[in-house]
């Protein structure tokens, strides 16, 4: 499971993946091939990597991965300087105009933390503290500079 938090300036995500009770450290945030967006996902790791590949190859609707229309779909999050949108079960961009926001199983903890004044990084730290499906470190990017800050 996952937590991804966005505060309008920073996007952050935990690094935990689990399968059959085993945990491992992974990366869920990647710079797009365009270089001006951070891509993240909440779902099975290999499916998330597939969504990132789909997006980097042009996000062509007819090439939408078949698994996304099934019951085990996931979310692709695309964050740029001052915007965020996502794709879910269908290849249609959903714009989020309100910040902060969060996704994944640790979403509620992260949203509560940001509502209390935390930035996206601190929100992910708090979600990792309280959700057993999040953890193993944090990746974060400054969306103005596209620099990895954690």
User: What value does the average pLDDT take?
Assistant: 94
The total count of helices amounts to 3
- The CATH superfamily name is Aminohydrolase, N-terminal nucleophile (Ntn) domain
Q: Considering DSSP H and I runs of 4 or more, what fraction of the residues is helical? A: 10-25%
Please specify the SSE layout and strand pairing.
Layout: E1 3-6, E2 10-14, E3 16-19, E4 22-25, E5 29-31, E6 38-42, H1 45-56, E7 75-80, E8 83-87, E9 94-96, E10 101-104, H2 107-115, H3 120-130, E11 138-142, E12 147-148
Antiparallel strand pairs: 1-2, 1-10, 2-11, 3-4, 5-6, 6-7, 7-8, 8-9, 11-12
Helix pairs in contact: 2-3
Structure write-up:
The protein has 150 residues and is an alpha+beta fold. The chain has one domain (3-145): 4-Layer Sandwich (Glutamine Phosphoribosylpyrophosphate, subunit 1, domain 1). Helices cover 21% and strands 33% of the residues. The strands form three sheets. Strands 10-1-2-11-12 form a five-stranded antiparallel sheet, with helices on one face. It has a five-stranded antiparallel sheet with strand order 5-6-7-8-9, with helices on one face. A two-stranded antiparallel ribbon has the order 3-4. A hairpin with a 2-residue loop joins strand 7 (75-80) and strand 8 (83-87). Helix 2 packs across helix 3 (120-130). The radius of gyration is 14 Å and the shape is globular. The two termini are 20 Å apart. The mean pLDDT is 94.
């Amino acid at each position: 499971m996952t937590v991804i938090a966005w505060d309008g300036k920073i996007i952050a995500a935990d690094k935990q993946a689990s399968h059959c009770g085993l945990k491992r450290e992974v990366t869920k945030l990647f710079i797009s091939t365009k270089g001006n967006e951070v891509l993240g996902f909440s779902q099975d790791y290999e499916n998330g990597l597939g969504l990132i590949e789909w997006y980097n190859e042009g996000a062509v609707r007819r090439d939408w991965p078949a698994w996304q229309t099934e019951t085990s779909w996931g979310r692709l999050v695309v964050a740029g300087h001052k915007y965020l949108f996502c794709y879910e079960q269908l290849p249609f961009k959903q714009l989020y105009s309100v910040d902060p926001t969060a996704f994944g199983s640790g979403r509620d903890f992260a949203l509560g933390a940001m509502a209390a004044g935390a930035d996206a990084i601190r929100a992910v730290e708090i979600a990792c503290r309280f959700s057993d499906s999040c953890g193993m470190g944090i990746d974060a990017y400054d969306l103005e500079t596209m620099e990895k800050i954690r």
